[in-house]
């Protein structure tokens, strides 16, 4: 049956229209040149993977849905980076990640690794996200990596467990991209999922995921006044706060003001104030909103989450100005481009990292990364957290098998599975 479609195009003088039939309405799909490695997602994982492959003289394409790189670090305001060190202070994360820090420091866009002044981890690494966005592209260019932004992958063609090509949608229409290896750094395992790899969501039983958070920045904060409050009332702050050293340390993180938060009684399932300082001297990044019981892979839920998160931002900012010393003259300077997502779809890898692996600081012969950060899981509903601390030397390995999806041969994904911890502590992050 003929279904007329109204097409509009802009001429030099006016808008016109034309009717065409269904048989003529097929899109023209352009084919991008083939690549050795196609990386989907320009967050830290995708960025580092693309740079590493480019430096090995591979033909590499990085595809990013937004107009800039950085992933949750820039899109959702996740700040600062933590932690490059174990709890005892040994640096275990180096490589390209450390190179980025050093190059930001050279531009005055990061002070480097500083002590975490609420004591949850050993170090935090503040950075200027705007400089990071530019540096990321420059490093891709240096490595010979091609880049496409404003491009969304929505179709994957796989035959017998082998990805043949992906399709992207952009302002240029639809394009096919072919490659030998595909790196799924989408954060939601989009490519692996569309290729037929098995994935899981959330916790066992009800598949509920950790809450989302809308982060925001405030300027005009008197941080000296905040520090004095911590020194005067240490019991009102996170127990691991290094009170004895605090006067001589630059304030990087504040976790506490438990009394003020409890008295406020806001309808947000958090039980603390949490913010991080910088990069400006009067600036903080606030991590206090909590949007629960929604699925980050469903557009209807994301729509609800964006509204709820921004509504909570206004409530939290008003609370900080009225109740927290040092915020009297502060105001919101920015909110994240999108809500921050802690957890969504995850691949089932050839190896599944367990809570015991993390807690016991397990080492693997096929390790491809190390970490000193504890397992840190926010309650999908209600208040509370689950935290599993790393024992042994304070670090654990992530083996290559965690990145290998089952049933797909030429795809790697950092959206891997880690089983849930059982140890509990005060909330964080």
From TrEMBL:
InterPro entries documented for this protein: FAD/NAD-bd_sf, HdrA-like
Pfam families attached to this UniProt entry: FAD_oxidored (PF12831)
Gene3D superfamilies, from UniProt?
Answer: FAD/NAD(P)-binding domain (3.50.50.60)
Gene Ontology MF terms: 4 iron, 4 sulfur cluster binding; metal ion binding; oxidoreductase activity
| Keyword annotations | 4Fe-4S, Iron, Iron-sulfur, Metal-binding, Oxidoreductase
Keyword Translocase included in the entry's annotation:
no
Q: What is this protein called?
A: FAD dependent oxidoreductase
């Amino acid at each position: 049956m003929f279904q007329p479609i109204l097409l509009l195009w802009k001429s030099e003088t006016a808008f016109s229209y034309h009717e065409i039939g269904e048989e003529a309405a097929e899109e023209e799909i352009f084919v991008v040149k083939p690549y050795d490695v196609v990386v989907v997602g320009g967050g830290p994982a995708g960025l580092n993977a693309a740079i590493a492959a480019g430096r090995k003289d591979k033909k590499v394409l990085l595809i990013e849905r937004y107009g800039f790189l950085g992933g949750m670090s820039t899109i959702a305001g996740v700040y600062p980076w933590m932690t490059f060190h174990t709890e005892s202070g040994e640096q275990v994360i180096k490589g390209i990640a450390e190179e980025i820090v050093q190059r930001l420091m050279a531009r005055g866009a990061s002070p480097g690794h500083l002590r975490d002044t609420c004591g949850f981890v050993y170090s935090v690494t503040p950075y200027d996200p705007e400089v990071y966005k530019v540096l990321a592209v420059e490093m891709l260019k240096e490595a010979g990596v091609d880049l496409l932004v404003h491009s969304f992958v929505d179709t994957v063609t796989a035959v017998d467990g082998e990805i043949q090509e992906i399709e992207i949608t952009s302002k240029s229409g639809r394009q096919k991209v072919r490659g030998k290896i595909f790196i799924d750094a989408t954060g939601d395992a989009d490519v692996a999922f569309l290729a037929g790899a098995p994935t899981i969501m959330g916790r066992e039983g009800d598949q509920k995921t950790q809450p989302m958070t809308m982060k925001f920045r405030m300027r005009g904060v008197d941080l000296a006044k905040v520090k004095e409050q911590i020194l005067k009332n240490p019991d009102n702050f996170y127990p691991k706060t290094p009170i004895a050293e605090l006067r001589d340390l630059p304030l990087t993180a504040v976790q506490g003001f438990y009394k003020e938060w409890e008295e406020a009684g806001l309808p947000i399932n958090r039980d603390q104030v949490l913010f991080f300082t910088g990069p400006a001297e009067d600036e903080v990044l606030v991590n206090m909103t909590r949007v629960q019981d929604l699925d980050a892979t469903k557009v209807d839920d994301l729509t609800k989450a964006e509204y709820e998160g921004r509504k909570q931002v206004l409530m939290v900012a008003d609370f900080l100005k009225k109740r927290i010393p040092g915020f009297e003259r502060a105001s919101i300077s920015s909110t994240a481009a999108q809500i921050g997502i802690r957890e969504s779809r995850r691949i089932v890898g050839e190896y599944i990292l367990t809570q015991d692996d993390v807690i016991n600081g397990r080492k693997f012969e096929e390790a491809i990364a190390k970490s000193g950060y504890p397992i840190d899981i926010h309650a999908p509903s209600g208040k509370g957290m689950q935290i599993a601390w790393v024992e042994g030397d304070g670090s654990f390995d992530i083996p290559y098998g965690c990145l290998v999806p089952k049933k797909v041969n030429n795809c790697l994904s950092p959206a891997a599975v880690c089983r849930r911890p059982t140890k509990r502590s005060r909330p964080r992050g």
